[in-house]
Amino acid sequence: MQNPLRRPRGHIAPQRGQPAFDPNHDAERGGPRGDSAEGVMSQGTGEFVGTVMFLYFAFGATQIANNVLPPSEPSLDRLLFIALAFGFSLATTAWVFYRVSGGLFNPAVTLGLVLAGGLPWVRGLLLFVPQMLGGMVAAALVSCMFPGQATFQTKLTGGTSIAQGYVTQLSCLF
Question: How far apart are CA 15 and CA 82, in angstroms?
């Protein structure tokens, strides 16, 4: 029995006289190639849906965790819950969508790949836009579905200035 992940269902071996390779179809991934318009559209759609799912689950868990205890009280349990929610959400959505779009879900990762030459500029732009829109849609869904003010915002605490936060974020990026 063959591994179903290696050969998609309905795969038909080429007949005699037919080309063994179809340039518009990626047999290993079971879908359209990334070079065709259909492939680029499916990658963009996969990035959008994957980003929405990833951030919806992560923002929803953060909203729940911050509403159980008041946000002013620091709690290691809450921090662990939020970190695990983000980790499992990303792992699950990346596992589901990596064959469709590569499972990037992060515009910073996409920009890094473009700058490093691992992703063409045009494809990077076509993935960047759905990722940004997916993040906005996920935040809007969580804001609409959970009562009260959104508690999944990023803010500086402990007397950290905006300049210090920027330098810290920039240094952690590299």
Answer: 53
pLDDT tens digits for range 29-85:
545 556 678 888 889 999 999 999 999 999 999 999 888 776 677 788 888 999 999
Do 27 and 5 form a contact (C-beta atoms < 8 A)? no
Helix (H) or strand (E) segment spanning residue 134: helix 121-145
* Measured distance CA(136)–CA(53) in Å, rounded: 12
Residues with Cβ within 8 Å of 94's Cβ and at least 6 positions away in sequence, in order, are 50, 54, 103, 105
pTM of the shown model? 0.73
Which structure tokens are listed for 18? Answer: 């037919």
Question: Cα 161 to the chain's mean position, in Å?
Answer: 30
d(CA 20, CA 101): 24
Dist CA 52 CA 137 (whole Å) = 6
Neighbouring CB atoms inside 10 A of 60's CB total 18
